[in-house]
């Protein structure tokens, strides 16, 4: 995970028109599987092609027509296998991305609240095993419907069990106790992204 130099940098991203700070949402398990599959199929394709070309060179290209057809078919099958694996792994990756649990919280702060300290406290939640990713940003809405909330926090989880663990954790309780003296109002909303029921 990448770290932010300071919480002020995170807030300035939003103040300058950005979306705020987004901690990397690593898909190591998915990327690793795709990479391993692509590597294995690529190895199969290359080794089959080299073996077939070696057979042809060894025989001086003076082979019966059916051997040439077999060599050509082997190359085509290897390429089809590579293409099929990449397509299937891409579909699995998009399916995994579709369903994520998110915990959203926005707060209205007292004048003079230590924003850097509050953002740093939130970013410390990244160390928790159950947390997949974190995002934080300041309000840049021009629609006057934000109830003057200044900061938003978003935590992503892989499943309901991890969300429940987060909600019951002492780390979350410590974050809430850090932010509570500086808030006049908060709004919390949990949702599953990519799913409409």
TrEMBL record:
Domain Stress-response A/B barrel: 101-191
Keywords assigned: Membrane, Transmembrane, Transmembrane helix
SUPFAM superfamilies associated with the record: Dimeric alpha+beta barrel
Alphabetized Pfam families for the sequence: Dabb
Name of the protein this chain belongs to: Stress-response A/B barrel domain-containing protein
The keyword Translocase belongs to this UniProt entry's keyword annotation: no
Residue ranges of the TM segments: 41-59, 65-84
InterPro entries (alphabetical): Dabb, Dimeric_a/b-barrel
